[in-house]
Amino acid sequence: MSVGDYDDLANDVATQSPDAVIFIVDNNPRSINKQSATKFAGITNAIIGQLADLVSVCESVPTEKIFVGGHSAGGQAVIEATQKREELLSYPVAGFIGMAPFNVGSVDGSPIDVPSLNWGFSKTSCGVTYTKAAMLAYQISQPETGRVFYQVVTHNFNTLTGGPHCSFTDRGCAGMCAGSADMRSFMHENVGKSVKVLIDNSATGIEKSDFEFEMSSDEEVNLFVNEDTIMASTKDGVGAVLTDG
């Protein structure tokens, strides 16, 4: 995926948070391998260092909060960069936004110790195992700093090239895993809403009630926040057993 594949999502996030400046970055153009925390750090350090030149209004308006996030392999890179931010990043991280991050289990196991917002699915999609994606990102996030997980309940039979893993994009990943047009619209709009809530509340405290906003869709969504716990199903790839703590 490239920077031009997330226009609809970026527009929804920007519409919900008009005071925010949204950058979509690609840490490894023309390749599906985007898991490098070092490459993500390099490009974002450069952007933050030149922010006033890139966005003229930022010269007179202080940048108080910098949130980082990513989808799939990019999400994996961001998690590792956040975990190693004292070593890799030249800026403070106000929060993490994960959209079905790929193979969270391959990072070093350190906690995500900043406010964490995660969106994912209840079934493996596009070869991304649901227990190692947003679910695991939520599990390694810390209730003390605030963590949120929206799990969209899915029923796709094709777990390799099907399902909604790429519904965060405009049209899917190389035409695959896009979900329906309604699903993509649902994801873009509601990710945008949840990011707004995260921005507004990350510094003062994450409360479940703040994230229980109305969603204009029939999609079934489980919401877990802070002390709420989630456990994988005993049957891999067919859903999850969810438990409110």
Features:
245 residues, alpha/beta, five-stranded mixed sheet, two-stranded antiparallel ribbon, disordered C terminus
Q: What does this protein look like?
A:
This protein is α/β, with parallel strands linked by helices and 245 residues long. The protein is built from seven helices and seven strands. The chain has helices spanning 7-16, 37-49, 51-54, 73-83, 85-88, 134-140, 181-201; strands at residues 67-71, 95-99, 116-121, 147-152, 221-225, 229-232, 240-243. The strands form two sheets. The protein has a five-stranded mixed sheet, with helices on both faces. The protein has a two-stranded antiparallel sheet with strand order 6-7. Helix 1 packs across helix 7. The longest helix has 21 residues, at 181-201. It is globular, with a radius of gyration of 17 Å. It starts with 6 loop residues before the first helix and ends with a strand.
Brief summary:
29% of the residues lie in helices and 14% in strands. The protein is built from 7 helices and 7 strands; from the N terminus they run αααβααββαβαβββ. The model is unreliable at 234-245 (pLDDT under 50).
Q: Between the first and last Cα atoms, what is the distance in angstroms?
A: 36 Å
The residue fraction in helices comes out at 25-40%
Order of helices and strands: HHHEHHEEHEHEEE
Poorly predicted ranges: 234-245
Mean of all residue-level pLDDT scores: 90
- What profile does the largest beta sheet have? 5 strands, mixed
Give the beta-strand count. 7
* Shape type: globular
Count of discrete alpha- or pi-helical segments spanning 4 or more residues:
7
How much of the sequence is in beta strands?
A: 5-15%
Question: What oligomeric state is this?
Answer: single chain
Class by alpha and beta content = alpha/beta
Strand order across the biggest sheet? 1-2-3-4-5
